Amino acid sequence: MIPIERQQRILHLLAERGAVSITELTEWLQVSHMTVRRDIQKLEEQGRVLSVSGGVSLTQRIRSEPSHADKRTLMQDAKVAIAHAAVELIEHGSSVYLDAGTTSLELARLLASRDDLMIVTNDFMVCGYLIEFGMCNRLYHTGGFVVRDNQSCAGEATAHFLRNLHLDIAFLSTSSWDATGISTPSEQKVPVKRAVIDAAAKRVLVCDSSKYGKVGTFNVASWEAIDQVITDKNLPLAAEELLLSHGVKLTTVELHDSGRATLIK
User: Fold this and answer.
1) In the predicted model, is pLDDT for residue 72 greater than 60?
2) Which residues pair with 202 in a beta bridge?
3) Are the CB atoms for 7 and 43 separated by under 8 Å?
4) Count of alpha carbons within 13 Å of 138, Cβ hemisphere only?
5) Would you place residue 69 in the very low, low, confident or very high pLDDT band (cuts 50, 70, 90)?
6) 230-242 burial string, b = 16+ CB within 10 Å, else e?
7) 110-113: long-range contacts at Cβ-Cβ below 8 A with a sequence spacing of 24 or more?
8) How far apart are the first and last CA of the chain?
9) Average pLDDT value for residue range 129-154
10) CA dist 229 to 134, 140, 207, Å?
11) 98: phi > 0 → left, psi -120 to 50 → alpha, else beta; which?
């Protein structure tokens, strides 16, 4: 049996069962563990499956994003820990982009006391917080089409604003990321994120591990466009190895009961 036939059989089995162990696949296909792992790696590179402990599962397709209100209650400790690690990357006098999202809001809270920064965002909650509590030297909102549920702006007008900037560092968010890179279920977010990637000298994805293995309809960027990922300690080992193989610096963190964030890697 040639590799493409084995890979199609793996996909058919996953469509029926959702997840399968490596041992089951070796017995079913009558091949070695190494052969099965090569097939899984190929399928994962295509964004079709996700390696899990001892096995493989189908990637989860997402059709829409949760609202800002819903996201505030999800993975909150991870977001706080990620924000603490992210703030360490911001040098004095930097121009900083904060992408729409609740992790960016946690980062904004940590940046509020700094008066040396230029901060750009498309997120109304981030902008509102910094208007009321921030001391940043210059604060810009991108403007553009208003996405009510996400409380942010997206679309071509937003992207046009960002294309006129030179940013030192951009912190990107996403609802879905996998072996192929970053994706989104929202077509209007694609030009915004791509414009930010082009405008920034350093591009950092700040995203909790629960969104890994999910795939949106629209591709945003491959890993070659991202310099660093900051996430929590629950990212699968296979994902860590994949990011490192693409030359992406990986930082994983956790938050202790004391409220102190600890860098793990």
Assistant:
1) no
2) 169
3) yes
4) 9
5) low
6) bbbeebeebbbeb
7) 110/83, 110/84, 111/87, 111/136, 112/136
8) 41
9) 95
10) 26, 25, 8
11) beta
Q: Would you tell me the crossing angle of helices 3-17 and 22-29 to the nearest 10 degrees?
A: 130
Rounded Cα–Cα distance for residues 82 and 41 (Å): 28
d(CA 139, CA 118): 6
Angle at which helices 102-111 and 76-87 cross, to 10°: 50
Q: Which residues contact 179 (CB under 8 A, 6 or more apart)?
A: 44, 45, 47, 50, 239, 242
What are the tens digits of pLDDT across the range 197-244? 999 999 999 999 989 988 898 999 999 999 999 999 888 888 898 899
Q: d(Cα 48, Cα 4) in Å, to the nearest integer? A: 13
Residue 55 makes CB contacts below 8 A (sequence gap 6+) with 19, 20, 21, 22, 24, 25
CA 185, CA 227: separation in Å to the nearest integer?
Answer: 23
Q: How far apart are CA 145 and CA 157, in angstroms?
A: 7
160's tokens:
């046009």
Token pair for residue 151? Answer: 């409380």
The residues, ordered by sequence, that sit 6+ positions from 110 with a Cβ below 8 Å of its Cβ are: 83, 84, 87
In the chain, how many H helices and how many E strands?
Answer: 10, 18
CA dihedral for 99, 237, 18, 3, sign (positive or negative) = positive
